[in-house]
Specification:
Elements: H1 5-28, H2 35-89, H3 94-113, E1 116-125, E2 134-137, E3 150-152, E4 157-164, E5 169-173, E6 180-185, E7 191-197, E8 200-206, E9 218-221, E10 235-242, E11 251-257, E12 266-272, H4 305-348
Antiparallel strand pairs: 1-2, 1-12, 2-5, 3-4, 3-12, 4-5, 6-7, 6-9, 7-8, 8-11, 9-10, 10-11
Amino acid sequence: MRDTKESRLLLVLLIAIAFALITVDIRGGEDSPVDGARQAAAGVFGPIENGVSSAVDPIGNAISAVRDSGDRHDRLAELETENAALKAKLGSDERGRSRLKQFDKMLGLAGAGQYGIKGAQVIAIGAAQGFSWTVTIDAGAGDGIERDMTVLNGDGLVGRVTTVGPNTATVLLANDPDFTVGTRMEGSDELGFASGQGGRPLRVELLNGKAQVDKGDRLVTFGSQADKPFVPGVPVGTVSNVDPSGGDLTRTLEVTPFVSFTKLDIVGVVVQGPQKDPRDTVLPEKEQPKPTPTVTVTATPGADPDGQTQDGGQAQDGQAQDGQAQDGQAQDGGTGQNQQSEQSEQNEQ
């Protein structure tokens, strides 16, 4: 089409009509007068769009996967280098060895869940940031830390990042009353929400009010949209108490967290979420119950000193009676012989 005055006027008119139809459609809501036309257009062009999408999506997904794979590999390699530098910085003294142990345990948990983490140290606690349960870590925006990232250590869920500075960040701990995280029960997959209660166990509300739960059952994080603020599969804690009432809508649990919030030192910020939900695989192996030792008491007959005396006395009495019996037999034998001799003499006479 040639660029003429008439063509420009037609274009302006079409745009005005389009805006008018959009306004009428929005104001009309479900009763919009153009709803029928929109559905007819969707019926005509929908199959064409689906066909084009089916043909193009695999190519686009493949290109995106290759591009993301390279970026992910580079990011993980960079994190490994930074974590190795932090590991060397921790030193070899007693305190350093303790930190190295924490660091290695945290790397093992991150490896099991396929989390890309940035290691950091806790450098301050508490009320200075205006929260009752917070810590400050020595990693910030310059290290790739962003708000609403998951924070963990070698035991499990520590909290989430709330504020970020150039070189430091504030972490809201999981036991803070303002903290809430979605949870999944190990094995049964029952969903719920865990909330902090300060120094007390976490409070968990299960969505299923009649769910079967026992003491010792364990929970992990459910995960969030785009892994913020929580990635899935991070160990949360162990059920320590179950509300026996079991309401119709929810069920309340008390959960002892895996993490000791008063002894935090080495932590990791998850800067790269897992490619798939690890579910229960990050949980530590359950400890096997130790068998209770049993004591066997064997009673020996005649062990009582009184019994020995009685047994001995009875035996001696029995022997004496046997002796008397033998004497009696001897006397009887002698009497019998004398009687036979006297009878023989009388017969001879």
